[in-house]
Amino acid sequence: MLVQVGTIRSGSALIFNVLRYIYGEYNIIRKNNYVINICNTAKYYITYRNPYDCISSFMWCKKMPLTKENIETAVHEYVKNNGEYIINHFQELVIKKNCCVLKYEDFYENFEYLYEELEEFRDIKITDEIRGNVKKFYCIENIKKITDKHKFSKIDSNTKLHGSHISCDNGEINRYKKYLAASHIDIINEEMYKYIGKNKFTQFMLLNEYVD
Fold it and tell me: What confidence tens digit (pLDDT) does each residue in 23-42 have?
């Protein structure tokens, strides 16, 4: 069984569709709206991203003004949709043999890196034809062209791509720096501390070089 999970706005839809293309004969299970329950009989593809980027991108998609209440709501969405689990169990997940943990900042616009990670995880070979087709169809430009025609609430049941799937900045790394003020970051941190704990959250941010 192949299971794809991730935090909100962490490139999980891309990974889900790449897996669908490579493993067409498998039923890829997507669990992004549920807390992960890792079992040893399944193979997991787990995506994560800087929480500040995830939250700011989510708020952009939902057209949420940057009020304290809205930021708290967005943090709650991040936490309940695998964010809390991934942060709390991060160091365990990255060494589990049945988990392929993929960092957004590493695979963003880098299909060759992604192919190498997927090949190594299951000891497979992705053909040049598949590599080319995946990159051509699932590049940012093409997905943006397809999904910008629809509202955010419209979701394709097969691809799990929703309207306006690609943000205004094309999902760039550290987008939050242009979107969030220091006061907004403070609110996010305080909410994260409530759910995850200050030490655990800070450790995760430092490990991934998400803080300056």
Answer: 876 678 887 655 567 778 88
